[in-house]
TrEMBL record:
GO terms for biological process: maturation of SSU-rRNA. Its cofactor is Mg(2+). Residues 338-354 have a biased composition (Acidic residues). It comes from Collybiopsis confluens. GO terms for cellular component: cytosol; nucleus; preribosome, small subunit precursor. This is Serine/threonine-protein kinase RIO2.
Length: 384
């Protein structure tokens, strides 16, 4: 999906009010009745209809005809707008540029701050896979079911943010986290080649060891990446240093399946090096040989730090269950270890599919955020 930067400039303060009202209403309503939108926004009914019509025209909300009543739901575009507006209000970002990545569960854009410094905006898109097809009978979302794609996308962003911050603060090679809002994360742009694109490297053995060392370093700090593969390792153009990205699936080494996750990470690297660089080593880390720091020791347990950082165990569980469901439904993306030995062709196909590079389409778009005209503070007016 594209971020439509041009339209977003023209959202008026009343339209913004209505959009926020739809977001709020969708916490309890899958389809938010127009009357509720009017009520939350504090605008007259007639006025609301017009405003909502113009938002719908720009795909920020979508009309849904229900058996009981007609109403609206927020679209991804609408949610994107609200998140980007929050980031721009905090002066974290200013303009949107090219899309550089499309995953099944995220979109990646280059954005810039007011000084023109490039950053990466990751928009989580967990609801691309319909919830209904995933789980009918487990009711862990409770009332939130109606807003599940928004809720799950936000949880993923919050979790990724919590991990990225803690990892960065403890000197792990990850992008510098800059800001987070709703389902979005703003981070340092890494000028790098993704490992998956590297056809040949001078000393695969050296890179292999440094990646295995990283897995061990994570584990010593109580963490397992959980998706440690060539898609999530970037090789810095200037230094050749590996940078790790993509953290929504990280787990603690105390997780009941920790060893399985750990072995899968190790296996991904082994398999990739064997296939791509014809490099094999009898040396690789083993989970039960790694001694994790105990709580209270001088060193740190980052899983404990993250747990204390505001991303609760309950939220962690909800997200984990969702990810499990998605995986069980056969939607899992890029984990090389689970493929057969069918190789090259399949690999290439998958790369095409999953990380299709987006060309110059978004180029030359003007910065849009400077002319947003509304000045409403949320949620002051929501009780009116
Ligand atoms: P997904 O969850 O969809 O796999 P990722 O966080 O792995 O999302 O990002 C997808 C792709 O976008 C990466 O493989 C990488 O090519 C690019 N990318 C992501 N973050 C950055 C970054 N900080 N700097 C440069 N490129 C990035
Ligand atoms: Mg990834």
């Amino acid at each position: 999906m594209k971020l439509d930067a041009t339209d977003l400039r023209y959202v008026t303060s009343d339209e913004f009010r209505v959009l926020t009202a739809v977001e709020m209403g969708s916490k309890n309503h899958e389809v938010v009745p127009t009357s509720l939108i009017a009520q939350i926004s504090g605008l007259r009914n007639g006025g609301v209809n017009k405003l909502i019509g113009s938002l719908a025209k720009r795909n920020l909300v979508a009309k849904v005809q229900n058996s009981k009543y007609d109403g609206y739901r927020l679209t991804y575009g609408g949610y994107d707008f609200l998140a980007m507006r929050a980031l721009s209000k905090r002066d974290s970002m200013y303009s949107v540029g090219n899309q550089i990545g499309v995953g099944k569960e995220s979109d990646i854009h280059i954005v810039a701050d007011q000084g023109g410094n490039e950053m990466v905006l990751k928009l989580h898109r967990l609801g691309r896979i319909s919830f209904r097809t995933i789980k009918q009978n487990r009711d862990y979302l409770g009332k939130r079911k109606s807003a599940s794609w928004m809720y799950m996308s936000r949880l993923a962003a919050q979790k990724e943010w919590a991990f990225m911050k803690v990892l960065h603060e403890h000197g792990f090679p990850v992008p510098i986290p800059i800001d987070q809002a709703r389902h979005c994360i703003l981070m340092e742009f890494i000028d790098a080649y993704p490992l998956r694109q590297m056809a040949d490297i001078p000393s695969p053995g050296k890179l292999y060891s440094s990646l295995m060392d990283l897995i061990v370093r994570f584990a010593r700090a109580g963490l397992i990446h959980g998706d440690f593969n060539e898609f999530n390792i970037l090789i810095r153009r200037e230094t050749g240093e590996p940078i790790v990205i993509d953290f929504p699936q990280m787990v603690s080494t105390s997780h009941e399946n920790a060893e399985w996750y750990f072995n899968r990470d190790v296996e991904c690297i082994k398999t990739f090096f064997r296939r791509r660089f014809k490099y094999e080593s009898s040396l690789y880390p083993k989970f039960n040989r790694i001694s994790t720091n105990e709580e209270g020791e001088e060193d740190f347990r980052l899983d404990v730090v993250v747990a204390a950082s505001g991303f609760s165990r309950k939220e962690m569980t909800i997200l984990e269950e969702y990810m499990e469901e998605v995986k069980d439904s056969g939607f899992e993306q890029h984990s090389i270890s689970e493929e057969g030995e069918g190789e090259e062709e399949e690999d290439e196909e998958r790369e095409e599919d999953e990380k299709e590079k987006v060309g110059e389409e978004g180029a030359g778009q003007e910065p849009f955020l400077r002319t947003v005209t509304d000045e409403i503070e949320v949620p002051d007016w929501t009780h009116s």
